[in-house]
C-alpha cells in the first residue's frame, strides 16, 4: 500500500466514531501511564486494522500465533519475547530505555537486549575461574578481563557483579541442551577495590534462535534467516549504579551485519586476540565496562530490562 494511504488514518470508510467510543470506555480510576500506553496501543491497533483492511481470518491467524507462543512458553522458553525480538521490538525498547537513561557526551557501556536465555542465580565464582564445564577442548578458550569503572569519574567500582552467559560450541545454551551440565557457561564475578575482573570462557559461535515456533513462522514468512552473530551476554549490577544489560559481539563473526534480532551496536564489537603463554587459553579478550550512577540518569530511568532493574 502506498505510504500516503497508510499515514492517512482518517480517510477510511469505517465507523468514524468507533475508536473514540472504545477509548471513552476507560474508567476514572485508571493509572495515567496505563491510560497513555493502552490508549496509544488501541489507536495504533485500530488504525492498523483499518489501513490494511484486516479480515477476520487474518486477525485470527495473529491471535493463534500469540496463543501458540503462550502455550510454548515456560521457565526455560519465552516465545513471546522471541516474537518481539524477531520484530525488532526488544532492541527498539532497549535503545529508548538507554537514551532516556543518559544524556552525557561520554556514555556508559551501551546496552543490548537481555534475550530469553538469562537465568537467575548463576553460580558465584572466584575471580580467575572458568565457566566452561563438560566441553572437550575445542581451541577456543578465552581469558576475558577488564575493569569496571564509573563512566564519569573513571574510578574503579568495588562490589560490581558481572553476570555472564553464552552458548556452547554447538550453539545451544545449557537449558536447551540436556548434554550440558546445569548452569554451564554461566557465572557471577564480584569486583574488589580495584574494579578488576577476569575469568575463562569460550570464544562463542553464531547460532540460530529457536525457530520451531511462532517466531520461526514469522522469519519464514518474511524470508529471513534465524542466526545471531557470536556474542557474550552480561548483566552488570553495582552499588549505587544503574544495572547494565548488554552483549559484546565478535567483530569477525558472520551475521554481525545481519543479526536476526537487531541487537548489534558498533561500540559493542570486540576483537578476540591470539594469546600466547597461558596453557588455559588460546584467546585474550580485554573489555572494560563503564557504569553510570543513578543520579547521572535522566529521570532515574534504568538501562536494560531485567526484573532487578524494575524493582530498584
Ligand atoms: C540471545 O542472544 O540469547 C537471544 C536473543 C534474542 C532472541 C533469542 C536469543
Ligand atoms: Fe545469546
UniProtKB/TrEMBL annotation:
**SUPFAM superfamilies noted in UniProt:** Aromatic compound dioxygenase
* Keywords for this protein: Dioxygenase, Iron, Metal-binding, Oxidoreductase
GO process annotations (BP): catechol-containing compound metabolic process
Cofactor entry: Fe(3+)
State a single Gene Ontology molecular function.
Answer: ferric iron binding
What CDD domains is this protein classified in? 1_2-HQD
Q: Give the protein family.
A: Belongs to the intradiol ring-cleavage dioxygenase family.
Q: What is this protein called?
A: Intradiol ring-cleavage dioxygenases domain-containing protein
Query: Lineage of the native species?
Result: Eukaryota, Fungi, Dikarya, Ascomycota, Pezizomycotina
